[in-house]
Amino acid sequence: MKMFYNPFSPFSRKARIVAIETGQQDRIELVLINTEDPANGLSAYNPVRKIPVLEADFGPLYDSPVICEYLDSRHDGPNLLPAAGEARWRALRWQALADGLLDDALLIRYELNLRQESGRSEAWIERQTTKIRNALDRMEADAAELEGPVTIGTISAACALGYLDSRFANWDWRETHPGLAAWHAGFAKRPSYIATIPRA
Fold first, then answer.
1. Is cis: bond before 52, omega within 30 of 0?
2. Residue 200: its pLDDT value, please?
């Protein structure tokens, strides 16, 4: 299999962590993609030109939740996406919350990096920032749910917090979210998390 990715993409990181946690990293060839290059050829695999994309035997898969679920279905160990019951819905809810936080954070990055300063909307940035703060507050309130087995929810939460660390370090979310910070400190010691830290 091939995975088209960028190390600075938190959604790529989530798929890579799942690959490592399920013992499949050696079966996947990583193909680095510059997402800002219109000639990167990604549209041949994903018409909306987003990463990650996993090229499976039957064709490409895109959107990190789909890729992660596919990889989770291909190994013999404990599933990262519980099969049924409350555990499944909790894991999916955490994934949705973390992915939503990332969507808002990426919108801020695009506004700051791709739009000329004269055309930036501070009101737009503040709206996304408020949503991120709300997401962090919910994560803090429910942080006890993150304890226990690794799931797609805990992986997603860790990737979201890691992205804030790499792109919004001045926010210092740990100071106001101590329970979340304590959990993240433990998860950040996992080999899969360390191996996927984006490097300049």
1. yes
2. 65
DSSP-H helix ranges across the chain: 10-21, 64-72, 85-114, 122-141, 152-167, 173-176, 178-187, 191-195
Which H helix or E strand runs over 56? Answer: strand 53-56
Which two tokens mark 108?
């801020």
Q: Minimal CA–CA distance to 100: which of 145, 19, 156?
A: 156
Report in angstroms the alpha-carbon separations of 148 from 2, 20, 153, 186. Answer: 31, 18, 11, 11
Q: Is the pTM of this model over 0.90?
A: yes
* Residue tagged 């946690």 (tokens): 21
CB atoms within 10 A of CB 150: 18
Say which residues have a Cβ less than 8 Å from residue 49's Cβ, sequence separation at least 6.
35, 40, 42, 43
- The amino acid sitting at 169 is A
Cβ proximity of 98 and 159 under 8 Å: yes
Q: Which residues pair with 55 in a beta bridge?
A: 2, 60
Spell out, as residue ranges, where the chain has pLDDT lower than 50.
Answer: none
CA angle at residue 4 from 81 to 79, to 5 degrees?
15
